[in-house]
Amino acid sequence: MIYRLKKMKLKFLKAGGGDSILIQTNGQNILIDGGDNPEFLFRQVEEIYANGQVIDLLVITHHDQDHIKGILELLKKIEKGEYGEPKKFIQKVFFNSPRKIQNIEIPEDTSELSYRQSYQTEKLISRLDLQWETCTDKTESIRFGDTKLHFLSPIVSDLEKYSEGAGDYLSSDYRSDWCSDLSTLISKTDDADLDNTLANRTSIVILLEHKTSRVLLTGDVTPARFNEVIENLVRQSNTETISFDYLKLPHHGSYRSLSKELLGKIQCKNFIVSTDSTKYKHPNKRAFAKIIAHSSKEGPTIKFHFNYQETMDNMGFSYKDTQLNYFELIPNNKDYGIEFSNF
Question: 90 in helix, strand or coil?
């Protein structure tokens, strides 16, 4: 008997330094990325299989290690037959590999870890004969009962340009600002050093709609491309700003992934931070300062949700910070991370 969920559950799994997001709705499962630590992902997948369900859609937003490693490990388990027939267990895959975009293969002996893992992943997808497609802003929306996924990015020209490249794949900042005073950071927020890497620009961005709720899942998208996505949404809605119930901070809360311009077009009070904070000094307190500086103090308090409490603790916010600047820090509410089901 297939167990069907009565309402949508949105889970931001503990997945090491990266993202692993599971959407469960209408008895169907959408998995977005696998992080670089698949412990809790495997637990969720085993539960899906035990309930007689499948992964209806697997999305790999881009091939950085902290998004793809867990998926690679999952595909290896599937190849061993742990979840039955592969094509039945994973119904569809979105993955913008150079192999799929322009039939360009990543060299197996590349020195870049993320590229090696992408090569291994695309080989496994092919061997398992999974239904595999690319995903761009032209990809048709997909409905799962009351839940709908809209694919807002990347654009084809960026993918084609990126697939011909050979190296650029990470954009990180090793400077920690966790011990810095928040008030000082707020007064000095700027956009002087924003991420403009093509690798992150090609990250898949998804708008999740469930009944009247809207959640923006940003991957590691760059601020320039993020701004273009927001401008398109604003234009379509014929408004000056666009509202979301939840927004996953791009690139694990990097300040280089947010600009003042795009924050001025967004209305949101719930921001999600997905990382264990052990790599690249993410999240940056400066990212929080940018959000706080561009949010109205009227109405509900801003809430930052963490899938790891230790990440929240590492940032060094004081009680005074939260009281003076009208924001709240919320740790994971499940042992496996964050679960939202109040839709």
Answer: strand
